[in-house]
Specification:
The protein is α/β, with parallel strands linked by helices. It has a single domain, classed as Spore Coat Polysaccharide Biosynthesis Protein SpsA, Chain A, CATH 3.90.550.10. The protein is built from 7 helices and 14 strands. Strands 10-9-8-7-11-6-13 form a 7-stranded mixed sheet, sandwiched between helices. It has a 5-stranded mixed sheet with strand order 3-2-1-4-12. Helix 1 packs parallel to helix 4 (127-139). The relative contact order is 0.19.
Length: 308
């Protein structure tokens, strides 16, 4: 079965170079986080890569990473633009921010027609999730069921996904005894607490403890092509619900999938992983990420020149 890796990279900024976190070199030979994600996905068995970018990024994006990856595997491009709206809807005057991860993936309609895995451009997920998700797609996913969509995600441990340098947003998950997602709550302002704990800082300055062993989503979803079709009708409903006039409203994958669970139109298998996530959420994270890759290279997980 042919499979694709989709990388959401439309939010990386209008310029490249210093200060663009997703394109900061973190490997000893100038590799960026996306290089490691692509390497791990291809090693796990994925066949091709689809980059979601913006038109104004294309020239620089191809020069920085696209042209290199095209020599390794088949690549395609999808384009997320703030003005890409369903017929009958208009972008609010002055809005420049794209409409979120749901709209990003929707831009792949007509481009992606195989079971796929979607990820963020600036997150390192570890090897384990790619292997488990590819195996699930090929051997267990019911790709033909259009009534109840079969989706899968890695269940990261919250404590393995926190930053030392500030708050993060995570989709905190509830999972039943059979390993299926029952609820996902997009939770912001999660901080690393003392002694491995975690807490949410509330608007009034108080703290709510949260179990660091909770499963969380890191916007890594495996799905059949029908899921993209569902995103189209869902985006129309989202805009009709008053969001078409909002300057910052976002059509987000965790919210979309959570709604599908409530409606009974999807099931989500959670595949536990103990791998440690890291990414450059804050500029202070960069040194930690560089050191983390150095340790992985020293341990033999990666070669010093990744694609040699």
């Amino acid at each position: 079965m042919e499979t694709a890796l989709i990388i959401m990279a439309a939010g990386i900024g209008s310029r490249f170079g210093g200060g663009i976190k997703q394109l900061a070199p973190v490997g000893p030979s100038g590799e960026i986080i996306m290089d490691y994600s692509i390497h791990d996905a291809l090693e796990a068995g994925f066949d091709k890569v689809v980059f979601i970018i913006r038109h104004d990024l294309e020239k620089d994006f191809r020069e920085i990473i696209g042209n290199r990856i095209e020599k390794i595997c088949p690549c395609s491009y999808a384009y997320q633009e703030v003005t890409n709206l369903p017929e009958g809807f208009k972008n609010p005057e002055g809005r420049t921010k794209p409409w979120g991860t749901g709209q990003a993936l929707l831009s792949c309609k007509g481009i992606v027609d195989v079971p796929s895995l979607v990820i963020n451009a600036d997150d390192y997920y570890g090897k384990d999730a790619y292997v488990k998700l590819h195996d699930y797609i090929v051997n267990r996913m019911d790709v033909d069921n259009k009534k109840v969509l079969d989706i899968a995600m890695p269940g990261f441990i919250l404590g393995n996904t926190l930053s030392d340098n500030g708050a993060v947003t995570r989709g905190v998950c509830r999972v039943d005894s059979d390993g299926f997602l029952t609820d996902i709550s997009e939770t912001s302002n999660i901080f690393k607490g003392e002694n491995g704990g975690a807490y949410v800082e509330n608007k009034d300055g108080s703290r709510t403890e949260i179990d660091p062993r909770s499963y969380v989503s890191m916007n890594m979803w495996a799905f059949a092509p029908e899921f993209i079709n569902r995103l189209e009708s869902g985006f129309v409903d989202f805009l009709k619900d008053g969001n078409q006039y909002e300057m910052k409203a976002e059509y987000l994958l965790p919210t979309v999938i959570g709604d599908m669970l409530k409606q009974g139109s999807a099931k989500v298998k959670v595949l536990p992983t103990s791998d440690k996530w890291f990414g450059v959420t804050y500029k202070e994270d960069k040194d930690y990420v560089i050191e983390s890759f150095r340790r992985l290279i020293d341990a033999g997980v990666y070669k010093a020149k990744l694609f040699d």
